Amino acid sequence: MTKSTPPTTPPVSTATPLDQAWAQVRSGFEGFIGNTDAVYALQRGLVAAFVDAAPGQPPVLSKSYLFIGPASVGKTELARRVTAILDLPMVFLDGRSLRNREKFFDLVDDALYAHDLKPHALEARSGTATFHYPAFAAFIDETHLVGPSTQESLLTMLEHDDRSVLLDGRRGRRIAVVDKAAFLFATTRPAEVNRALRTRCTEINLQRYTEEEVAQMVRLRFPQLVDAPGYSPVATIAACARFIPRIAFEMARDVLEEIKTSANQEVRTCVRNVMNGRSIIYANGVTKNDYAYLKLLQHEGRALGEKAIRAHLQGEIDAAQIAEDIEPFLFSLKLVSPTGAGRALTYAGYEFIDQARKLAEYGA
Question: Do 281 and 152 belong to one domain?
Fold first, then answer.
């Protein structure tokens, strides 16, 4: 994956507030691997918040962020880091559970109460009690699962010149002013997020991790997994985990458990045993289900549409697994490519199947 180099920060005196802000923000992202450009965009916004903060007051983000990307690319981790850097109480919500804005503010109130914080009363607006909320951070994951009417009901609190919302919940009718709040959203399906909500956010697009990035994460977390002559268990784990850090960490733990409990403690054998338990049959991470998908395309000898593939593999592989797991992985390996006529084996795909057949013939 090609990545551009983010702009370098001009050298400044170590005594300046700008330099201090950059140091504080960078330290908050220490150890975060991958998505360099996205991280820089967040860092820039955070530094601006620190520089603009009034003396003795917490920094306030001037924008809301919408993290966009496939599952397991660090959206939640970035939200946690932003919140930690700002040192704010955090409200974490899954889009499935957010039914209305009153429910949202009930959770905000509970989070503030846990930190001995609460909104203070302002002069009433048009006869409606009005409260100014202290600084907090709210992260709404899978925002596309929030109902359309609820998404629309949140818009005014994201307006730069408004940042308030009318509530009518268990605490009665009131107006909440949230000009100090940091709103963070995340989605795997941006097209399903209310367009008006999207335009009120700065979008941060996150890419899938590369094998090298996942391997780096595993090495940092599991330094006891060292390379053997001619073999890297960490590289194999990163590939077999489909470049997903969470799965790679689980596999690394399983390998260490296998080494501890197995009579044969040779690391390559232990990795192979863990792979077998996960139906992974090749060191590039291809599973039995992946291979069945490849063999179907080879047998047909032509491109197949999604419906045809699901029909052929019905009862063997779940349709959601095909769309959300198998196809993205095989695309990333360039074994399969999407075409106007459907999914087709690439030259590399035919070559892989041929090599796999030879491995099976010779018992490798």
Answer: no
In a domain, 45, yes or no: yes
**Regions of the chain where pLDDT drops below 50:** 1-2, 12, 362-364
Give the model confidence (pLDDT) of 210-264 as tens digits: 999 999 999 999 999 999 889 999 999 999 999 899 999 999 999 999 999 988 7
What pLDDT is attached to residue 42? 96
Count CA atoms within 13 Å of residue 223 on its CB side.
1
* Dist. CA 293–CA 307, nearest whole Å: 13
CATH number of the domain to which 152 belongs: 3.40.50.300
Domain enclosing residue 329, as ranges: 211-361
Whether residue 333 sits in one domain with residue 253: yes
Query: Do 36 and 62 fall within a single domain?
Result: yes
Domain boundary among 171, 205, 239: 205
Do 85 and 178 share a structural domain? yes
pTM across the whole model: 0.83
